[in-house]
Structure formats: C-alpha cells, structure tokens
Amino acid sequence: MHSNYIMILLVSVSWAPDGASHLYKNHHLDKKTSSFILILNEKVSSVSPAQPKSKVHIVYLGKRQHHDPELITNIHHEMLTTVLGSKEASVDSMIYSYRHGFSGFAAKLTEAQAQAVSELPGVVQVMSSRLHKLKTTRSWDYLGLSSSHSSTNLLYETNNGDGIIIGLLDTGIWPESEVFSDKGLGPIPSRWKGGCSSGQSFNATKHCNRKLIGARYFFKGLEAEIGEPLNTTEYLEYLSPRDALGHGTHTSSIAGGSPVVNASYYGLGFGTVRGGAPGARLAMYKVCWNLEGGFCSDADILKAFDKAIHDGVDVLSVSLGSDDIPFTEIIKPDSILIGSFHAVAQGISVVCAAGNGGPSAQTVENTAPWILTVAASSIDRSFPTPITLGNNRTVMGQAMLIGNLTGFASLVYPDDPHLQSPSSCLYMSPNDTSVAGKVALCFTSGTFETQFAASFVKEARGLGVIIAENSGNTQASCISDFPCIKVSYETGSQILYYISSTRHPHVRLSPSKTHVGKPVPTNVAYFSSRGPSFPSPAVLKPDIAGPGAQILGAVLPSDLKKNTEFAFHSGTSMATPHIAGIVALLKSLHPHWSPAAIKSAIVTTGWTTDPSGEPIFAEGDPTKLADPFDFGGGIVNPNRAADPGLVYDMGTADYIHYLCTLGYNNSAIFQFTEQSIRCPTREHSILDLNLPSITIPSLQNSTSLTRNVTNVGAVNSTYKASIISPAGITITVKPDTLIFNSTIKTVTFSVTVSSIHQVNTEYSFGSLTWVDGVHAVKSPISVRTMIEESYANDS
C-alpha cells in the first residue's frame, strides 16, 4: 500500500515558471493538485488486498534484434502471453511496443507478473513507469548569434541551420503562431520518415508545413497511470499535438522558431523573436498533458524516443525531468536514460534540462554522460521599475509591470506590530484585511517564498506587493498578472524605515522599462539545479549553461488570459532549447561529428566570465562565484564552439563504463548494446571515461587517469597544457605538449592528481586548458579529498 501511494505522489507535478516546482508542495496554493492526489490515492486505497493492482511497467529488451517492426511486436506479444496465459490478455495488457530505436514494451502488470516477465530470457530490465515533470528577443544577440551576415557568425555559416531537424518531447505546439511560419524554407528533407497526426483541433494537412514537419502525440501510458480515459473537457486538453499548456510552444520557438519582428510582451523585451536555428525544421512529440500542471508518463516518453529515432531527427530537446524522486530511486534507469542512449547511438544529440531544484547541491537531473545537460543563466537584460515613496524619493526594483496603479496607494508592512491584525506575508489568509486595497512590503529568503508571499497578498485583495528577497536572485520572479516588484534587502530596509517613520505611508508603482547591457550581470539562475551528480559523482553535471531566465517566446493566444502571442518564461526548460538550437547549427556545420564531439565542443569553449569579461555569479544563499557544479563548462559560446580546435570524442563502447557503474552485468550490456565488452574491475575506471571534464569525488593519495583528444582544427597543430590546480591539489599532465599532423589526428595523455591535504575537504575547482595560440580547449576540474578515517581504540 505504501509503495502505491509513493507512486501517486510522484505524479503530482506541475510545470512552473521560474522553476518554482516547490510551490506545489504548499497546501494553501495547491488545492486542485492536492485534490487530484487525494482522488488518485482513494483509487489505490479502494483496491482490495485480494485483487493485486496492475501498474504500468516497461519491459526493456535492449537493442532491437530484427529490422521488421511487425515481427518485433509479435515477439513482444508472445513473451507477454507466456506470463498472462493468452494472446487476448496480452493484447489487453500491452500499451506500447517499442520496435524502432530499441526493443521493449509497456504493459499493465501486477508486481508478480512483472517479476515473472523479468525472468524471461532476453529481458534486460523491468521497471515501473514513473511520471515526469516539465522543467527570444535578446538571448541570441547576447550569445553572439546576431542576424548580421558576418563570416564569423555561426548562424551565417550554417544558413540558419537549414536542413536540420529538431525534435522536442514536450506539451505539444500551437501551429498558428507566426514563429512556425515556413516562409522562405525549401522542401522538407528527403530523409525525413516522420509525419503528422490529426486529432482534436489539429488537422495534419492544414497545420503541418515545411517548418513544422512532424507532430505526434502519446497518451496511452498516462491513461493507464490514472486508470481512466483522458477527459479533455475536464482538463482543458486536446487529444492531438495541439498545445494546451504553452510550454512546448515556448520551447519550440526558442529552438527553431522563424523570425518575428516587433515582438514583445506588452512593450517589454521589444525586438525580433527567433529560434537559435531559424532555418531548422521542427518535429513535436507531445508526451506531457495538462493534468493539474503537466504530467508525462515514462511509457509515453519512451515511445516518443522510439518514434523520433525512426523518423530521423538530428537533435532532441527534452525539457523534462524527474523531480521529487527519492535518492534511492535516482540511480534506477528511466525512459530518458534509455531512450537517449539509443538516440545517441544513432547519432542523435539529446539535450536535457538540468532541473529546477537549485540552488541546493546534488539536485541535477538527467545525468547520463551521453546527455548534454543544461543549467539556466540570466542574460544582460533587466526590467527596472520605479517605486516612488510618499516622501518623493524613488527607488528601483525589478518587475514586469504593465501599466501603473492610479496615483499613490497606502503602503503597509504586514509584520508591523502596530497593525490591528498583524500577519506575516507567508502565512496570510485570504480573509486577512491588513493589506486589502494597499501595497504590501514583504521580506523573503528565496524565489519560492517570494511566489508564496505574492500569491497570498493577491488572495487577500492587496493592490500590489514589493518583495525584498535575500537570495541574490536579480531577476523579477513574482507571480504573473499582479503588480509585484522585487527589490534588494537593502532597498527593502530603506522602504521599511520610511514606513516606520511615517504616519500614513504611501507609494506609487510605475510601469517597467527594458534595459539591455551593462551594468546588468550574468548569473546562474537561483532555481537552476546544481551538481555534483548523485548517481555518478565522477561525471560532471550540468555540462553547460544557457539563457533560461525571463526568456521571451511564443505562447498560446489565451496565455495569462490576455491577448498576447509572446510571454516571458523561466526555467531550465527554456535553457534546454537554446542549447538544442546551437547543437542544430553545429550539426549543420559539422555533419560528421558525433554527439560526444559536439558536446565536447560546447563544454570546452564555454564562457567562464560573461561576454563582457565580468565574473559570473551563482544565485543562492549566499550568492557566490559560479563553479563547474553550477554551470559545467560555463555559459555557452556558440561561435567558439564552431571551431573548438580539439574534441574529446566518445562512442557506445565508452558509455559501457557508465552502465557498469549502474550495476549492469556483462550479459545485460550485451543485450543493451550488442557489444561483448566486459565491465572493468578497477575501482576508479569511470575516471577514464573520455569526458571533456575531470571530476574526482574521492581523492585519497594519488590518482592517474587518461584522456584522448582529436584534432578538428588545422592539420599541423601544437598544443601546450595550461593548468590551474584546485586549492591544495597538485596536477601533472604527460605529455604536456600535443603535436598533430596529417598522420597523427588523436593523441592520448595522462593526468596525475594528488592532494597535499591531510583532512577531508569540500570540492575545489581548477582547469586544464590546451592552447595553440588560436584555440583554448578548457576542461573544468573538480576534486574533493576524502581520506579514509581510522579510529584508535579508546583505552
């Protein structure tokens, strides 16, 4: 009974702007979701112990053994029939047959049936299906990808990514948006084997074009999870590729949207909206549905991967993750790990969100080494908003305030003991009268408290709220459709002093403006999930950071209940399609590069200071200089990634080291990959994985590891090592000079790392950079000294 309840809890997920996933854990704001959880729990509770509950299970069989899809499906039914007893029962139980990119099926099984299936020959693993969560005008110019026809501009060199196909696993798409116009595009690439599926309010012939060349939807897994047909009326959904949430439309416009001039959110962020690869084609695989905010079933996600591999996409953008899964479950493979492995094996780059669980450590998701995992950063744009106090002093905050309150309004501090009904902003009830018709000043310690406080003031009929947030979060991250302005703690204290020294404090909130450039800093966003990776701490995650805070993109026409086609969203969901668009451009420029080579080019060329040379900070409590666990190789630098000089390349055989660390035995790995490679026995063998980074989570004495680099620059090149050692760590590289010519294209080198510490330490950071006078191939280094403890007997 307990395990069934935990599974239901995992499905209670919602996409939230600004990465505010934790909002939905608060009972005050989560009446609908809580009710939904209780309904599902009652269904589980009502099952008699004598009637075992069937749940969705994924039966994974590894790499497909046949090229005939129908034959593969028949084999799946035969396997299921041996356990269930009849072909009819097999047909009734099976939800999907995975038969293109890999072999397996999803079926409704009891725990006993799942155990019996797991013992059949050829079965690699049987796992319960979990549910996953959903994780512009300025950002591309900020990254150096302007629309100017410069010969050094990656956008120009690749003809905007024309011919590349970007697939997205998301909530669907709003095809009428101008960003999905196919004006100026040529024929659909002949290698495309996908298609469009008609459904509710979506006509494949009418809505797909030379830009949106694919649109499919998958819902059978979700229906099996909730135990009833998807009620599109109740959940305001479309049983089709059409987007009901706006998330997929927004991410699609960021990755490969066509240019739309004079776009803005009511004048804010005015400019041209376009995708990173505006000439690329888009294929939407709708796997997430509008059940109280956005649910995505493992079974549906895996089917989408299977179809995308078959259809012929070049890049997959996956803004999904597994929030709120206990540590004991994190190391178990899921649909994204399995689906992405087979996609990468077919040469498809898979870009995934790092998650919105920051700023805490060990919150990063999608940690497999073949995935390009993306953190979220801000850009050099802000929205200053004047706050004029009753003493005619004006201070500045951050908001997206459209219009202004009429004249001055009363200003209150709800914690003021002189109020007749004192109450904290974080515990204010809808019946509280202390802020009704007034502007409230609230102090919070982070983004989630900020959104709580703003919501509570709104529910209590306040006119607006000024939030003094002590988190270092420089971005406006209040709730939408309500006057909400963020200020620093210092500014909040100044406003509080005014309130306490005035008998009748008043304030006027003025409309926000758009400011681009200095002095706006680049930060890793407060909500962005941080490393180190829990499943494999020796694999650096996240890999790279991209713009993910206050990104303007296409939304549904009814978004925010206003007549607007563009809006700002934040989250690693927005950073992911930024990187996917850049990957599309790199694939166009270097069609023969592997996904690992492209990932290496991006990681080793990232900005570790912002484009203007200023340091990059990671928002948190306290805010600090960003390190590799915040942003991997740094902020993505597309133009440098186009010519990295050297790459750390990998293939399927290299990833087997990682599979060994997850507990796969040699037999399972053979079924997974069809390669007879024995798992290495050396304890630290994962350190030799040819990653473009070095992470040693437990350094005791001295450790050596190897890497090899492939020259993708000038044929005759010489690189010298430049080392910045972490504090208390000694690093030597042999050889320290790499020479390439027409016959030597790949060189292996060793790195020896030792510690002078005599005690256990936290992580410290450095870098290894190969320099040839033109290129700087920089690998981040993270090392933690962990000396085995021994205790003498007390006597």
From TrEMBL:
Gene3D superfamilies: 2.60.40.2310, 3.50.30.30, Peptidase S8 propeptide/proteinase inhibitor I9, Peptidase S8/S53 domain. Residues 688-783 form the Subtilisin-like protease fibronectin type-III domain. Residues 161-606 form the Peptidase S8/S53 domain. One of its GO terms (biological process) is proteolysis. The active site is at residues 170, 247, 573. It comes from the Eukaryota. Keywords: Hydrolase, Protease, Serine protease, Signal. It holds the Pfam family fn3_6. InterPro entries: PA_domain, Peptidase_S8/S53_dom, Peptidase_S8/S53_dom_sf, Peptidase_S8_Ser-AS, Peptidase_S8_subtilisin-rel, Peptidases_S8_3, S8pro/Inhibitor_I9, S8pro/Inhibitor_I9_sf. Residues 1-21 form the signal peptide. Residues 56-133 form the Inhibitor I9 domain. GO terms for molecular function: serine-type endopeptidase activity. Residues 409-495 form the PA domain. The keyword Kinase does not apply. One of its GO terms (cellular component) is extracellular space. Belongs to the peptidase S8 family. This is Subtilisin-like protease SBT3.6. It comes from Vitis vinifera.
